[in-house]
Amino acid sequence: MKSRLSEDYRAIFMGDTPMIDLRSPGEFARGSFPHTVNLPLMTNEERAIVGTTYKQQGQAEAIKRGHALVSGAVKEARVAAWADFARAHPDGLLFCWRGGLRSEITQGWLRDAGVDYPRVAGGYKALRRYLIDTGERICREAEFVVVAGRTGTGKTHLLNNLASSVDLEGLARHRGSSFGRRPGDQPSQIDFENRLSIALLRAEAKGGAILIEDEGNRIGQRALPPALIARIQSAPTLVVEEPFAARVETILGDYVTDMLAEHEAFYGDEGFERFAGFLQDALARIAKRLGGLRYGEIAALMADALTHQRVTGDVALHRAWIERLLRDYYDPMYDYQLRQNERPVLMRGSKAEHVARYGAHMVQGS
Question: Is 96 noted as a catalytic residue in this protein?
Answer without folding.
Answer: yes
